[in-house]
Structures are given as structure tokens and as C-alpha cells.
């Protein structure tokens, strides 16, 4: 993986993003924000999953007036997602949120937009300029290349904010098209030093969204691009956070505290019921979380090597397998005892 892109550092409440700070996992509640009890409960659940920053929708005046009370009840930075109403952005800042996200293209009055920027500067509140493919097309209404349009428009907004002396800017350029999203981030990454928030917008249901996000977000991170991320799912946000960490862990950007199971794709050489063994091990793993790598391999081709590299491993043969621990072969184990043998050895680590 290439070196991470150098950016300025922006503080979002107690969390620093950009610079040398760890990549921050974000999510967004799907509750009605003015239902403070339910929203706070969902945020607490996301905090438990190690969500670092949370964003909430702010569609109206009733909602924006709840933000101060909501902030008191949670432990992670609160971001207000604002569209159209500059008065909502002003009030959100006064309510004490840690960041606001706006799409300047949805605020056509230049003076009112500048009022937001000046107040954010006075209060030390960063702004994410969040541009997405759907809104930028509707606001521009022409056939210019989408990637060029997103980048050019975003940099124009940034230049405007900078002209007002405002520098605490975070940028996102999201599309539902994975390749266009990646191209937009690659382009803007070469032209500025703002921290970049990664995501694929409107990615769909979890089984589709996880593929698009792993390719788009993971691909950019592998190139050193990206400082925060959100995996966008249609549905409850809990899986978004879990998927975000899986992407980071796969790239070595976050250390897992959960067991990792490595298992081979089954083929005609496999002579044990590998899928059943893997599922049984997952089901019976100790409730106490620990970082341990477990290899469950079905044949002698790659099995011994993978099992030796893991903390604990089984390399299967015809109805039997060899048990490995920290690179050492321990003993031969019948197929029916493989799960219990693995679990016993895990307890000793």
C-alpha cells in the first residue's frame, strides 16, 4: 500500500481527522432526530461498535432545536447534516454541534452561505463540503463530465470559503458509480490538502453496498487516499460501522480485536466437511473478544502453510487433520474432534 496522502488536520470535537490521525469510521442515524431518546439510544449502540463520529439529519426547525440536548447525551462528536435552509445551519452551530455538513449547491444565496461560514469560523466548527452526483447534476443541468464537474465545483466552494478566512474544511465527492467516485477522489486529492471523507452514495442494500464500498473505499485507501469513511447501507447503520472496520482491517489500517478465521475455497481435493467445521467454530468461539487468527484448511496443497502461519490452524486430509499452533505441528486430530481441538487451543492463547 502506498504512503498516506498528507493533509491538514481538522478537529471534529475530540477527534482529529487528517494529518497522521487514524482513519475515522463514521455513520449516520436513521431515526427521526427529534426523537431524542431513540436517536441517543441508536448512537450509544454505534459507540459500542466503535463509531467515532455520528451524523444526524436536520430537516426542519423542530429538529435543529433538539441538537443541543442530543449532544449532551452522547459521547462522540455530533455532525448536523444540513440541506437548503441556511437558518438550520446557523442554529445547529449555535446548538453546539461539532461539525456541519452542507452542500453549498443547495444554498443559492451567497450572502447567507457566507453567514454560515463566518459563524462556523467564530465558533471553531469545521464544515464538510459534501457534493454528490445527484445534486450536482440537478443544479447544473448540462452534460459536462461528471467527475470534472464534481471536482471543479467542490474546489470552487473551497476557494470561496478560504477567501473568507475559513480553513477547517473536509471534502467529500460521492457518486453511486464506483469508478466515477474513485476518479473524483483521485483527481481532487492531487489538487488540495483537505481531509477527504470517503463513501459510495446510494450503494443499496447491504449485500450490494458492501461490494461497492469494499472496492471504492478500499481501493482509495490502498492508494493512501482518505481520512474518514462511511459505508452507506439501506437499513440500520450498525452494519455500516462493522463493514467499515472490516475494510480497514483487510488493509492493515486497523487491528481487529475479534478472531479472524481463514478458510480455503472448497474444491475437489477437500475431504472434510469444511463449511460445517468453519460455521461451528464461529458459533462456539468464546464470548470474550480476542485477536487471534484461526486457519481451517481443507486439503494438503495450501493447508499446512496457512495453518502454520496462523495462531491456531487445522490442515485437513481424508477424515483427519493436523493441528498447528504458532507454526508448530502439534498432533493429528480426527475430523469429528477438529472443532473442539481448535477451541481448546484458542483458550490457551
UniProtKB/TrEMBL annotation:
<dbReference type="GO" id="GO:0141197">
    <property type="term" value="F:4-hydroxy-3-methylbut-2-enyl-diphosphate synthase activity (flavodoxin)"/>
</dbReference>
<dbReference type="InterPro" id="IPR004588">
    <property type="entry name" value="IspG_bac-typ"/>
</dbReference>
<dbReference type="GO" id="GO:0019288">
    <property type="term" value="P:isopentenyl diphosphate biosynthetic process, methylerythritol 4-phosphate pathway"/>
</dbReference>
<keyword id="KW-0004">4Fe-4S</keyword>
<feature type="domain" description="IspG TIM-barrel">
    <location>
        <begin position="7"/>
        <end position="244"/>
    </location>
</feature>
<comment type="pathway">
    <text>Isoprenoid biosynthesis; isopentenyl diphosphate biosynthesis via DXP pathway; isopentenyl diphosphate from 1-deoxy-D-xylulose 5-phosphate: step 5/6.</text>
</comment>
<dbReference type="GO" id="GO:0046429">
    <property type="term" value="F:4-hydroxy-3-methylbut-2-en-1-yl diphosphate synthase activity (ferredoxin)"/>
</dbReference>
<keyword id="KW-0408">Iron</keyword>
<dbReference type="GO" id="GO:0005506">
    <property type="term" value="F:iron ion binding"/>
</dbReference>
<keyword id="KW-0560">Oxidoreductase</keyword>
<dbReference type="GO" id="GO:0051539">
    <property type="term" value="F:4 iron, 4 sulfur cluster binding"/>
</dbReference>
<dbReference type="Pfam" id="PF04551">
    <property type="entry name" value="GcpE"/>
</dbReference>
<feature type="domain" description="IspG C-terminal">
    <location>
        <begin position="260"/>
        <end position="347"/>
    </location>
</feature>
<dbReference type="GO" id="GO:0016114">
    <property type="term" value="P:terpenoid biosynthetic process"/>
</dbReference>
<dbReference type="InterPro" id="IPR058579">
    <property type="entry name" value="IspG_C"/>
</dbReference>
<dbReference type="InterPro" id="IPR016425">
    <property type="entry name" value="IspG_bac"/>
</dbReference>
<dbReference type="InterPro" id="IPR058578">
    <property type="entry name" value="IspG_TIM"/>
</dbReference>
<comment type="similarity">
    <text>Belongs to the IspG family.</text>
</comment>
<keyword id="KW-0414">Isoprene biosynthesis</keyword>
<feature type="binding site">
    <location>
        <position position="264"/>
    </location>
    <ligand>
        <name>[4Fe-4S] cluster</name>
    </ligand>
</feature>
<dbReference type="InterPro" id="IPR011005">
    <property type="entry name" value="Dihydropteroate_synth-like_sf"/>
</dbReference>
<dbReference type="Pfam" id="PF26540">
    <property type="entry name" value="GcpE_C"/>
</dbReference>
<keyword id="KW-0411">Iron-sulfur</keyword>
<feature type="binding site">
    <location>
        <position position="267"/>
    </location>
    <ligand>
        <name>[4Fe-4S] cluster</name>
    </ligand>
</feature>
<protein>
    <recommendedName>
        <fullName>4-hydroxy-3-methylbut-2-en-1-yl diphosphate synthase (flavodoxin)</fullName>
        <ecNumber>1.17.7.3</ecNumber>
    </recommendedName>
</protein>
<dbReference type="InterPro" id="IPR045854">
    <property type="entry name" value="NO2/SO3_Rdtase_4Fe4S_sf"/>
</dbReference>
<comment type="function">
    <text>Converts 2C-methyl-D-erythritol 2,4-cyclodiphosphate (ME-2,4cPP) into 1-hydroxy-2-methyl-2-(E)-butenyl 4-diphosphate.</text>
</comment>
<keyword id="KW-0479">Metal-binding</keyword>
<feature type="binding site">
    <location>
        <position position="306"/>
    </location>
    <ligand>
        <name>[4Fe-4S] cluster</name>
    </ligand>
</feature>
<dbReference type="InterPro" id="IPR011060">
    <property type="entry name" value="RibuloseP-bd_barrel"/>
</dbReference>
<feature type="binding site">
    <location>
        <position position="299"/>
    </location>
    <ligand>
        <name>[4Fe-4S] cluster</name>
    </ligand>
</feature>
